[in-house]
């Protein structure tokens, strides 16, 4: 008889945002396969477990995923409690479906334990509701990343239709996102916010407009970044509390993505921290 594989959400990073169910499972786990983003403070709850990092890098998805699938099945044949620990919520941009399908195909019992997804942690850090009454009645979670052979997907249509849009894994594609959305008719002045390392001590937030997105994204470090777009961010984008340098730019000079803007980045780096 094989064990059970639990697909567990580790949340956005802060250990105390882990669910109680997740913490209890980690305590009972015999083996934990974890993503790169899961911090040590959470892993240390799995006192007795063997811990195996299976973080993936983009471009290596399919090979890495097949390997992880196989290891989960092998582990379930050896141990009663196998935890597959994923950042945020496992069911959102977490490749849970591939793992669930593979486990079910191999008749391995599995359960999913939800976690706090990045969009919710970022909203908490910003203090702005994704669905602020009177402004937003719909939220879209989207990513530009696609798997090889994925069905065609019109992310632009979704981004234009939703009142609030949260873009995952988008920092590297900031210029493309901004250009595509503006080209599709979204106002360049659409307010947006960026949260890096949501819920963590190194958390950083920036706000501005859609046309400023590439410049804002350049100011992010190497941490995970959530991009949030919509009228609900108008106040923080305009207030200058988060990124006063951007307001100076939009009030006076034309924001360009030329070396002029880049040259000023170093000197202003700390003004964007909140
Ligand atoms: C592979 S996706 C996983 C999403 C995860 N399943 C979730 O529900 O949050 C990784 C992306 O999630 C976002 N993300 C994860 N943790 C984050 C954090 N603490 N702060 C900001 N964004 C985060 C970033 O966009 C990152 O590139």
How would you describe this structure to a colleague?
The chain has helices spanning 20-28, 40-43, 61-76, 96-105, 118-126, 155-161, 174-183, 213-218, 234-239, 244-251, 259-268, and strands at residues 4-9, 31-34, 50-53, 81-86, 109-113, 139-143, 164-168, 191-196, 204-209, 225-230. It is an alpha/beta fold and 274 residues long. The chain folds into two domains: 4-113, Tetrapyrrole methylase, N-terminal domain (Cobalt-precorrin-4 Transmethylase, domain 1); 118-272, Tetrapyrrole methylase, C-terminal domain (Methyltransferase, Cobalt-precorrin-4 Transmethylase, Domain 2), CATH 3.30.950. Helix 3 packs across helix 4. The longest helix is centred in the N-terminal third of the chain and has 16 residues, at 61-76. The N and C termini lie far apart (52 Å). Residues 12-13, 37, 86-89, 92-94, 117-118, 121-122, 168-169, 195, 197-200, 224-226 line the site of S-adenosylmethionine.
Layout: helices, strands, pairs:
Layout: E1 4-9, H1 20-28, E2 31-34, H2 40-43, E3 50-53, H3 61-76, E4 81-86, H4 96-105, E5 109-113, H5 118-126, E6 139-143, H6 155-161, E7 164-168, H7 174-183, E8 191-196, E9 204-209, H8 213-218, E10 225-230, H9 234-239, H10 244-251, H11 259-268
Parallel strand pairs: 1-4, 1-5, 2-3, 2-4, 6-7
Antiparallel strand pairs: 7-10, 8-9, 8-10
Helix pairs in contact: 3-4
Bound molecules: S-adenosylmethionine.
Comma- or semicolon-separated keywords:
274 residues; Cobalt-precorrin-4 Transmethylase, domain 1; five-stranded parallel sheet; 2 domains; 11 helices; alpha/beta; 35% helix; binds S-adenosylmethionine
């Amino acid at each position: 008889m094989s064990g059970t594989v639990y697909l567990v959400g580790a949340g956005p990073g802060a250990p105390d945002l882990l669910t109680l169910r997740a913490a209890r499972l980690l305590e009972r786990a015999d083996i934990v396969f974890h993503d790169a983003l899961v911090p040590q403070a959470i892993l240390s709850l799995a006192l007795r477990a063997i811990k195996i990092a299976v973080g993936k890098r983009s471009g290596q998805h399919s090979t890495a995923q097949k390997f992880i699938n196989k290891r989960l099945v092998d582990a379930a044949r050896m141990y009663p409690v196998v935890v597959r620990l994923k950042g945020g919520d496992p069911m959102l941009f977490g490749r849970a479906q591939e793992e669930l399908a593979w486990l079910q195909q191999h008749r391995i019992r599995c359960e999913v334990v939800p976690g706090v997804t990045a969009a919710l942690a970022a909203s908490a850090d910003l203090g702005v509701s994704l669905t602020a009454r009177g402004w937003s009645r719909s939220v879209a979670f989207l990513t530009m990343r696609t798997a090889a052979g994925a069905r065609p997907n019109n992310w632009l249509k979704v981004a234009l239709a939703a009142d609030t849009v949260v873009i995952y894994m988008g920092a590297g594609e900031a210029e493309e996102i901004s250009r595509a959305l503006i080209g599709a008719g979204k106002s360049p002045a659409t307010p947006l916010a960026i949260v890096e390392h949501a819920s963590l001590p190194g958390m950083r937030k920036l706000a501005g407009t859609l046309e400023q997105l590439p410049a804002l994204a350049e100011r992010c470090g190497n941490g995970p970044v959530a991009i949030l777009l919509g009228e609900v961010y108008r106040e923080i984008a305009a207030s200058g509390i988060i990124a006063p340098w951007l307001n100076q730019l939009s009030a006076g000079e034309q924001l360009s993505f030329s070396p002029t803007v880049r040259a000023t980045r170093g000197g202003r780096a700390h003004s964007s921290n909140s």
